[in-house]
Specification:
The protein is globular. The protein has an eight-stranded parallel beta sheet with strand order 4-14-13-12-11-10-6-5. It folds into two domains: 260 residues, TIM Barrel (Alpha-Beta Barrel); 101 residues, no CATH class. The protein is of the alpha/beta class. The chain is 43% helix and 21% strand. The two termini are 39 Å apart.
Length: 365
């Protein structure tokens, strides 16, 4: 294991701007990490990752384990070399996907069937670590139990206890000094359970910390108190990663309570369906009113798409079902979100985060 230390470059209230150091390089926070589920961000290439300013790209252990297989990726020298990406990589444990498949769950682990061919597979904390070490991501996540929300208290309790037990086993199994392992806090929307889980996971000790099981159907008003309760009991000098969250309002609100990094598939999903994220809100690119608009998706966005293409052109591509439209919108949405985080960082360093937050919420809340 390689401890990821977070040096705080500036704070504004609970909001943090930092530089985190991994075994293979550093990254700045607040950070948005785009998701390359099967080894690629949908419609983007590794060259695009660099252009949009990505620092870390995610891979999904569940999908990569099944196709092409961890052994194959290992033979190519790891996920980064396999995909042509020279930046940092992070893999989730695959647990979220596995638990969506109605698996058989016992204290030892989970048994599930592949969505590709129906074959049966076994996941334990140790297997999840072994597979991720083969995939070779710089940052890896422990196998956790992510209960649906709402869930009764006994289900949340069992998830917290199993997550802690599995986390300890995962740490014991992890033996790569050039790779980092993050623990994960669970607990639903119960502040009490979140505090208990955070204390358990921090007590085991990891290279960084994820907060899972939020943004799964609950309101932001329910999410934020549970999130803040957990953060109070995690180390201040290590990264705090809110998993699966990427809408602008939630990003700025989570940074306000002390989160450092995020991931989400929303940016590319919206792009595939003709929607752009902009400084004035969501923009439906296919709308008829855009047919003759010779202006970019967002005049304040620094991405190549906004520098080169008009709203009218992108609408045309959508009208004729040209896949390039999904590519352009996906590139823009990822770049726009990364730029949002960069501007958030600048506001923290300048001591103007509260005003920045208010401006974002005025558009996105």
């Amino acid at each position: 294991m390689f401890r990821v230390d977070l040096n705080l470059d500036g704070v504004d209230g609970a909001a943090r701007a930092g530089t985190a150091t991994t075994a293979r390089g550093s990254y700045t926070t607040p950070l948005f990490m785009p998701v390359g589920t099967r080894g690629a961000i949908k419609y983007l290439s590794a060259a695009d990752y660099e252009k949009v300013g990505a620092q870390i790209v995610l891979g999904n252990t569940y999908h990569l384990m099944l196709r092409p297989g961890a052994e194959t990726i290992e033979k190519f020298g790891g996920l980064g070399r396999f995909s042509g990406w020279g930046g940092l990589t992070l893999t989730d444990s695959g647990g979220f996907q596995v638990f969506s498949l109605d698996p058989k769950v016992v204290d030892d682990g989970v048994t599930f069937k592949s969505t590709y061919d129906g074959s049966s597979h076994r996941f334990t904390p140790e297997i999840a670590v072994d597979v991720q070490q083969q995939i070779g991501a710089d940052i890896q996540m422990v196998l956790d139990v992510c209960p649906p929300l709402p869930s009764p208290p006994d289900v949340i309790r069992l998830a917290v206890d199993r997550t802690a037990s599995w986390a300890a086993r995962a740490k014991h199994a992890h033996d790569r000094i050039d790779q980092s392992l993050f623990g994960i806090v669970q607990g639903g929307i119960s502040e009490t359970m979140r505090v208990e889980s955070a204390k358990q996971i921090a007590g085991i000790g990891f290279d960084g910390y994820g907060i899972g099981g939020l943004s799964v159907g609950e309101s932001r008003e329910q999410m934020l108190p549970a999130l803040a309760a957990a953060l109070e009991h995690l180390p201040e000098d290590q990264p705090r990663y809110l998993m699966g969250v990427g809408d602008p309002a939630s990003l700025v609100e989570a940074v306000a309570v002390g989160v450092d990094q995020f991931d989400c598939v929303m940016q590319t999903r919206l792009g595939r369906h003709g929607t752009a994220l902009t400084s004035t809100g969501r923009f439906q690119a296919k709308a008829a009113r855009n047919a003759f608009l010779d202006e970019p998706l967002d005049t304040s966005c620094p991405c190549d798409v906004c520098a080169r293409h008009s709203r009218g052109y992108i609408r045309h591509l959508l009208q004729v079902r040209e896949p390039t439209a999904s590519r352009l919108l996906s590139i823009h949405n990822v770049a726009w979100t990364i730029d949002l985080m960069n501007r958030m960082r600048s506001a923290i360093l300048a001591g103007t985060f509260n005003a920045f937050r208010a401006d974002v919420l005025a558009v996105w809340e």
